[in-house]
Design brief:
Layout: E1 2-6, E2 9-12, E3 17-24, E4 32-38, E5 45-50, E6 57-59, E7 67-72, E8 77-82, E9 91-98, E10 113-114, E11 118-123
Parallel strand pairs: 2-11
Antiparallel strand pairs: 1-3, 3-8, 4-5, 4-9, 5-6, 7-8, 9-10, 9-11
């Protein structure tokens, strides 16, 4: 499956952005989807995810209550709505997909399919 992320940009602290990730070349509705992020000089980390049906979502503690992940299986797209953005949210955001094997996973190495990343910069 191929993934194309978009929607990043520059925003002031307290603002909002919505990221999109369009999938092609696979059965989108059968994959768990996730958003990860990588800040400068840091390792890539899990931010948000949801299972193949969209019925269960997962969030990192650092974004819980501010970010919302959703998917539209008819459009083969997953979204990340980011509100109340903080300077520490500045990072390259990546979408990822994995078959729903052995339950949901937050570890980067367990996600085989990745988009190219979109940069989010939050100014103070």
């Amino acid at each position: 499956v191929q993934l194309q992320a978009s929607g990043g940009g520059l925003v002031q602290a307290g603002g909002s952005l919505r990221l999109s990730c369009a999938a092609s070349g696979g059965t989108f509705s059968s994959y768990d989807m996730g958003w990860f992020r990588q800040a400068p000089g840091k390792e890539r980390e899990f931010a948000a995810g949801l299972i193949w049906s969209g019925g269960v979502t997962y969030y990192a503690d650092s974004v819980k209550g501010r970010f919302t992940i959703s998917r539209d299986n008819a459009k083969n797209t997953v979204y990340l709505q980011m509100n109340s953005l903080k300077p520490e949210d500045t990072a390259v955001y990546y979408c990822a997909a994995r078959p729903p094997v052995l339950g949901f996973r937050r570890t980067v190495s367990e996600w085989p399919y990745w988009g190219q990343g979109t940069l989010v910069t939050v100014s103070s």
